[in-house]
Design brief:
The protein has 25 helices and 14 strands. By secondary structure, the chain is α/β, with parallel strands linked by helices.
């Protein structure tokens, strides 16, 4: 069903920070990035039977409504036993379970749990934290597919452009969000694929589902047979708030400031500035209200007054269902409420996890091992045909970053396109450098600065992509093969795993390739994976094998 090849870790032109992490050169006092299974120490079990029973019962109740695979039930039974640990990963609940790297995170956590269980001789489960408290609708309200014309087609949920409500509170229906129309459009795209009906059943939200629940159901359907447990924060809100009240009372801003100084001393950039970041959110009828460090301890955006950590802790205790940790506090809360042994995450997450060591110590939280997520590119028979006709390999196309052309030497892309990208990136960086100054005016405005810079980069990238298409159509030959290689392997000038989702691949190839990828995956491997789907099929130009 699949054949895996390995490319070098830098094939996607990873950042210097990412390559440093993969090579094991990050200072251990900041974060433990294990290189071998043996280097992940089995922790002491700090959970009593009642805590385990409560967690397992809660998950069984919530997941039971989805009629999960028996492997999910077995994993819950393991979790209830003393000495069982969990490999955790997580992501925002993207529409149609996009993008692909969410799937890879889940598969890697399953593979790592299996290896640790084998090494230790004790149960280890894989648990996916559905980041349903997030409210960034613009990031999750759409998905991309490659259509029959080899163009990237954006499928967007109607009436979901922005907002402050957590994704767990965004409920979808046919009338408002055009679910039936979306399903019909997707059905047209995959109608000739052998597993189309099953893929649509898994990934398309059902009428009345929240964005978060649609994602939980999709991953439980697809990965439940592998024993994955999905968890939503609403299910364990009281336990989270108990730990959150404890953390806000111990002056987390001071501990985070010490962590930032350690990061700077190591010559690394600070990913999230704790002086301006939202540390805590209050959840009310209008959505999320951010509290940041300020005044006597914590301050709402736009508020003149403030409250101490002790006062905020008392508020949390009085109404535990109304609070949520921000991005910097969430990993620590997560490791206090779950029996975590390792976390699988991306380099963006790792960049701020390195700031958390002092806070973990202050909160008596474990210093959990951080495992960089695996990256992969799916290569289908049509893509392999295009590569053969172009006489090029996958790595070359990936290094071209979505603008590969067979006539690159004779007809390079116009210089203006590269210049536009440079200006956009520089503008985004210069805007980000103003964050601390803008925060002095208003912390809320500063929080939106990076998003504004990212939006500028994205808009310019779209214009550059159109310019590249015009350039390709005006010169050379084999343009259809180039378009397929670029749009399938590096769509939107970004790695495939960040843009495309699993729906079309499951519709075409079923679910067995997902399970096989999990079985063959080396959970600590730093190489980029090239996953050849249906390797026994080699197409000719007329589309026949």
């Amino acid at each position: 069903m699949i054949r895996i090849e390995h490319a070098s870790a830098d094939v996607l032109q990873q950042s210097a920070f990412a390559l440093q992490a993969l090579s094991g050169r990050l200072p251990r006092e900041l974060v433990h990035v294990p290189r071998t299974i043996a280097s992940i120490a089995k922790p002491n079990d700090r959970w009593d039977r009642e805590e385990r029973a409560e967690l397992a019962t809660t998950l069984a109740r919530e997941l039971g409504t989805l009629a999960p695979h028996v492997a999910v039930v077995d994993a819950l039974r393991k979790l209830e036993k003393p000495g069982t640990f969990a490999v955790i990963t997580g992501q925002q609940p993207g529409f149609l379970a996009s993008p692909l790297y969410s799937l890879y995170k889940a598969l890697q956590s399953i593979a790592l749990a299996r290896e640790l269980e084998k090494s230790w001789g004790t149960p280890v489960v894989a648990l996916f934290w559905n980041h349903a408290d997030d409210s960034d609708l613009a990031e999750v309200n759409h998905a991309h597919v490659v259509n029959v014309n080899l163009d990237l087609q954006k499928i967007t949920l109607a009436a979901l452009a922005s907002g402050k409500q957590p994704l767990s509170r965004i409920f979808l229906d046919d009338e408002t969000h055009r679910l039936a129309a979306i399903r019909a459009a997707l059905a047209q795209l995959v109608d000739k694929d052998p597993f189309a009906a099953r893929a649509l059943e898994i990934f398309v939200p059902k009428n009345g589902e929240s964005l978060a629940r649609a994602f939980t159901r999709a991953f439980t359907e697809l990965l439940g047979p592998l024993g994955l447990l999905v968890i939503e924060p609403d299910w364990i809100r009281p336990q989270m708030s108990h730990e959150l009240s404890r953390i806000v009372a111990i002056d987390p801003a001071a501990a985070l400031a010490r962590g930032v100084e350690r990061v700077k001393a190591a010559g690394l950039e600070v990913a999230i500035d704790p002086t301006t970041a939202a540390l805590v959110f209050e959840l009310d009828a209008k959505g999320r209200r951010a509290l940041r460090a300020g005044g006597d301890g914590f301050r709402y955006d736009g508020e003149d007054g403030s409250r101490t950590g002790t006062e905020l802790a008392a508020e949390i205790v009085q109404n535990p269902l109304a609070w949520s940790p921000g991005a910097l506090l969430r990993p620590v809360i997560q490791d206090l409420v779950l029996p975590t042994v390792a976390y699988v995450g991306g380099f963006g997450e790792l960049a701020y996890h390195v700031e958390l060591g002092d806070l973990r110590d202050a909160a008596s939280a474990p210093r959990t091992a951080f495992v960089p997520r695996i990256s992969a590119t799916l290569v289908d028979p049509e893509a392999r045909l295009a590569l053969r006709r172009l006489e090029v390999d996958v790595a070359t196309v990936l290094r071209a970053r979505g603008v590969y052309t067979a006539d690159a030497a004779a007809a390079p892309p116009p210089a203006v396109l590269a210049r536009m990208n440079e200006i956009a990136k520089r503008t985004s960086k210069e805007l980000a450098s103003l964050k601390s100054m803008l925060a002095e005016l208003d912390a809320g405005l500063a929080a939106h600065l990076k998003r504004t810079g990212d939006a500028i980069e994205e808009l310019v990238a779209k214009l550059v992509e159109k310019g590249e298409r015009v350039h390709q159509n005006k010169s050379g030959k084999g343009r259809r093969h180039e378009r397929r290689a670029n749009n399938v392997l590096f769509p939107k000038l970004a790695p495939q795993e960040r843009v495309l989702g699993p729906l079309t691949y499951v519709a075409r190839f079923g679910e067995d390739w997902v399970h096989e990828l999990c079985a063959e995956m080396e959970p600590l491997a730093p190489e980029h994976l090239l996953v050849n789907l249906a390797p026994e099929i080699e197409l000719e130009d007329n589309g026949t094998a």
